[in-house]
Design goal:
11 helices; alpha/beta; 315 residues; 43% helix; 13 strands; globular
């Protein structure tokens, strides 16, 4: 297939691009290389893709409709991944979240309608579950108790996609990602922050007094779910893509310490605004309808990340 992949220089976008190219798809990778985190990491990912047969890089912004129009011409699928991510940053820069996550998504969705693209797969987030207290989180649960602007914008994406499917018949699949980690991961995520601090002898901030629980999902498992969603291309679906098991934050940190060969200096702090105490994915639906079966646990995935970090940064 010929696939427009927005956010191609991002963490998930890079790995998914590699998987699609490897199986023979043609990928049009669109990215604006913004400065939410170090653009050098995005440039390094893009350099790994550029020059490979079947990959074309387009430097542009989803907020620019002309760029979206040109990039989308003649594609069989659109995989839309970019967003202003992270809960805490949204408290300080709300306008960027509305501009990118809502208006940018609208440009992609509406252009898919105009160009009659046969399928749109887009990134949602486990953050849409907000203040829910029933676990594991199921796609059937209510998601109207948002705790952050980020979660609200992802829920807005789901509503917008539903409306466009209902009104225009566009096939849409939303993917609720649960705490994705692995090599080439984002510098604002816990695994990167903890590894960086431990290896450089700095203390780590352990929020929620270390009592938080997360469904940590390895990048290869996420990519398998994304690719299956592209291939199945259901008329309208929402899927949880997680590991299907939750881990205690302190166990997660212990695993990082083991992989780094050093004990962390820990500063225990209260919960931060917008954070949830637990994330835990019910992946039964993805198993049934996507053949999704995560294989990598943190005892395997964390050492792979630490090895990548050491090699990439020369530590």
């Amino acid at each position: 297939m010929r696939i427009l992949l927005t956010g191609a220089a991002g963490f998930i976008g890079y790995h998914t691009s590699q998987a699609l190219i490897a199986r023979g798809d043609e990928v049009i990778g669109l990215d604006n290389f913004n400065t939410y985190y170090d653009p050098k990491l995005k440039e390094a990912r893009a350099a790994m893709l550029t020059g490979q047969k079947g990959f074309t890089l387009v430097r542009g912004d989803i907020r620019d409709r002309k760029t979206v129009v040109e990039a989308m011409k003649g594609v069989d699928r659109v995989l839309h991944l970019p967003a202003m991510a992270g809960v805490r940053y949204s408290f300080e820069h709300p306008e960027e979240y509305v501009d990118t996550n809502i208006l940018g998504f609208f440009n992609v969705l509406d252009e898919a309608r105009k160009q009659e693209i046969p399928g749109l797969i887009y990134a949602s987030s486990s953050s849409v579950y907000g203040g829910n207290t029933t676990f594991p989180s199921s796609e059937e649960d209510r998601v109207d108790d948002q705790l952050s602007l980020y979660g609200m914008t992802k829920k807005d994406n789901e509503l917008m996609a539903h409306t466009y499917h209902h009104s225009y018949g566009i096939p849409v699949t939303g993917l609720r990602f649960f705490t994705v980690y692995g090599p080439w991961g984002r510098p604002d995520m816990a695994l990167f922050l903890f590894t960086d601090a431990i290896l450089h002898g700095r203390p780590i901030n352990v929020f929620g007094e270390g009592k938080q629980q997360r469904d940590f999902t390895y990048i290869d498992d996420i990519v398998a779910g994304v690719v299956a969603s592209i291939d199945r291309n259901y008329d309208e679906e929402i899927f949880n893509l997680g590991c299907g098991r939750k881990e205690e934050l302190m166990d997660f940190i212990t695993m990082i310490e083991k992989a780094c060969g050093k004990e962390a200096q820990k500063e225990f702090l209260p919960m931060q605004p917008g954070d949830v105490r637990v994330s835990d994915a019910d992946i039964a639906k993805a198993r049934k309808k996507l053949g999704y079966e995560p294989k990598t646990q943190i005892k395997e995935g964390i050492p792979r990340f630490v090895q990548w970090y050491r090699e990439y940064y020369g530590v």
